[in-house]
Amino acid sequence: MKRYIAKRIVYLVLTLFIITTATFFLMKNLPGTPFDEEKLALLTQDQRDQIYASYGLDKPVIVQYVNYIGNIVQGDLGTSIYYTGQDVKDIIVDRIYPSALVGLQAILLGTVIGLILGVLAAYRHNSGWDYAAMIVSVLGVSIPNFVLAALLQYYIGLKWGILPVAFWESYDSSVLPSVALSFGVIAIIARFVRTEMLEVLQQDYIVTAKAKGLGQMAILSRHAVRNSLIPVITILGPIVVNLLTGSLVIENIFGIPGIGSLFVDSIKTNDYATIMGVTIFYSAFYVVVMLLVDILYSLVDPRIRLGSGRE
Amino acid sequence: MSQSLLEVRDLAVAFRTYIGEVQAVRGVSFDLNKGETLAIVGESGSGKSVTSKSIMRLLAKNAKIRSGEIRFEGENLAAASERRMQSIRGSEISMIFQDPMTSLNPTMTVGKQIIEVLKKHRKLGGAEALAKAAELLGLVGIPSPEKRVKQYPHQLSGGMRQRVVIAMALACSPKILIADEPTTALDVTIQAQILDLMKRIQEETGTSIILITHDLGVVAESAARVAVMYAGIIVETGTVDELFYEAKHPYTWGLLASMPKLHEKTSELTAIPGTPPDLMFPPVGCPFAARCPHAMEVCVAKMPDYTAHSDTHSAACWLQDPRAQKAAAATGASLGGER
């Protein structure tokens, strides 16, 4: 187990290195510069050279790359060009909180409700519960979350005035975006859990559990749900990454200063250091979550022993 | 009568399906005495598993007990509440299933799975339950049980797993143990070990066993009495000797003839020609009539009653009817009777 995790961490670093390298060179091929071209034209050649030099952009790309890698290794993500003088690391830390809060709430809400719906649907297969849960699921998948967001804003925010319509002012601001995001999660989890549960409920060991004299609740909680959750963990990995790293659309609609909008803005403005910083952050987060999912997997399913054969 | 632990009377079970209702069990009656092993034999679809599952009330949702009684120590289980059944299952009546590879939960240690039963029915907990689980594993012949209780099913072989299933079934010293094809999924060498184990346990605990099987070899080895099922009906019942040496029903003859024999050098296996009837539209008469080489007109028209040959031996066949005495004798001798 320990050896396996060590090996995975080596791969993880390697993956990050490749992503960093690829993004760096691709980014350098983007048309345009990080600067306002019109204003740049007003300056003298000397002044322009000075600006380029101050960001190290005067050197050949390969030298810039080596310097950049050197800085990352020391934990320095560079300074933003667009947000003049600000450390990219600080910007990301600032922006991650709203995204993570909204994402986390959406995941918790979505997973809990999705689980309940999925279990109910499977347990009461082909009943009203089942159909209702699946209708919710289909709606959740097919209605884009920005439509839902707009509806929530209009009714709950504007008409009834229960929660703030937009902007990031207090905790209350996080509720509507979380709800809007959670619908997709509910839909996916409910559908997945239902399918898995239906399969698990057919298994012989469920009959065995019944033959032992266990009640419905004990069979469901101890045998059926736990075993249905194993595959759900797999899809939970990407969902967690997607939501915690922010949803661009939802952040835009609700005016949340999250990391999703930071990423898009950084690309629009050719803010080299920020593009790199956010990309590295995203990828690092992704690979770490994937590793955690695999470890979690082995904890829930004893048949999976990481890295080695039996026992 | 006082000897009977379980009395099944006229049990009928039907399954609802999209295209109609399947009459899986059509009026089955038998008794199970204290400490005896009763084998229920029949081919796939004969209703033997459904009968055993009805006793435990473990039938699928679309199945329904149509009529009949299942009296366990006088109490009719066919009408008992689900709550009452839960207190009986695993405690008074236990079941062993066919495939030990799938009948254990793969994500739970075998110890925990045994402890579940003890907790439910004996209110044992913690260290006490764990010790009892290990003791049970030892009882069913699993070496180093203290180590095994902490293992998961996938760490055990098929034979070991079936021993675990048996240990689980025995946890609360049930009065009846229903074994539904307990050896079918196992290697032949392991089969014998498991049958021996069940025999030993019966001698030690005095539990009654209902053994569901299609394997007459298994029957000969472990049962005292046999009921032969065909198309949802018990066609013949008797002691093992009566069935093996004085079988009266043509279906039993067919079953016996289809057993491969080591001393005969034929490479071909004997089979009963034809297939069992469709139980969605069960025949009015004897269900075996269509495949029976001795079928008479009456066989197709009317279901025969049971004819008793001894206190323990009876068969449902027109050949055994007093009015068909001559025909029976003739066919018995020549195996060529037409009428």
UniProtKB/TrEMBL annotation, chain A:
Its main location: membrane. Keywords: Cell membrane, Membrane, Transmembrane, Transmembrane helix, Transport. It is a multi-pass membrane protein. The keyword Ribonucleoprotein does not apply. Residues 96-297 form the ABC transmembrane type-1 domain. One of its GO terms (biological process) is transmembrane transport. InterPro entries: BPD_transp_1_N, MetI-like, MetI-like_sf. The keyword DNA repair does not apply. The chain crosses the membrane at residues 9-27, 102-123, 135-155, 175-193, 229-254, 274-300. GO terms for cellular component: plasma membrane. It is found in: Cell membrane. Belongs to the binding-protein-dependent transport system permease family. This is ABC transporter permease.
From TrEMBL, chain B:
Residues 6-256 form the ABC transporter domain. InterPro entries: AAA+_ATPase, ABC_Ni/Peptide_Import, ABC_transporter-like_ATP-bd, ABC_transporter-like_CS, Oligopep_ABC_C, P-loop_NTPase. NCBIfam families: oligo_HPY (TIGR01727). It is found in: Cell membrane. Pfam families: ABC_tran (PF00005), oligo_HPY (PF08352). GO terms for biological process: peptide transport. One of its GO terms (molecular function) is ATP hydrolysis activity. Keywords: ATP-binding, Cell membrane, Membrane, Nucleotide-binding, Transport. Belongs to the ABC transporter superfamily. This is ABC transporter ATP-binding protein. Coiled coil: none annotated. The keyword Nucleotide-binding applies. SMART domains: AAA. PROSITE patterns: ABC_TRANSPORTER_1, ABC_TRANSPORTER_2. Signal peptide: none annotated. It is a peripheral membrane protein. One of its GO terms (cellular component) is plasma membrane.
